[in-house]
Amino acid sequence: MFQICEELNANKSSWKQFWDEKSVTPFAVNGNKVIAYDNERSIAEKVKFAIKNKLGGIMVWSVDTDDFHGDCYEKDDNAIAASYPLMRAINKAVFVSQREQANEVITQEEKDTANKKESGSSSSGTALGSLGLCLALFFFGL
Fold first, then answer.
1. pLDDT tens, 29-41?
2. Residue ranges of region Disordered (predicted)?
3. Disulfide-capable partner of 55 in 24, 50, 81, 101 (CB 3.0 to 4.6 Å)?
4. CB-hemisphere CA count at 13 Å for 73?
């Protein structure tokens, strides 16, 4: 991402940036040159997909291309959040996706409990259980 960001920022007028809904990925075009890459949004979508579909994990292939120093962020951005944007996007997306999934489970349990009360049956205990996802990635302390 860092090298791509440098290229896109250095030649802003030459590159036109787009979003591909099918692959959920940004890409840029400059004449006959095309660059497809991941950004925070595409990474978050991929993490969400993995968790929603209960995949066995996700992997980061090239951590060394993340923006370690936050050089691609505007000066107005939070300096702490500017470094490692892709790793931070993974961390945030895992947290948000798991919370959303837990909320869906709780909502379904509430519906099930209401249905059982209406039908006269009872059940004790709740079972949030495991989200069934083993993530193969590094979490950086935020």
1. 999 999 998 888 9
2. 105-126
3. 50
4. 19
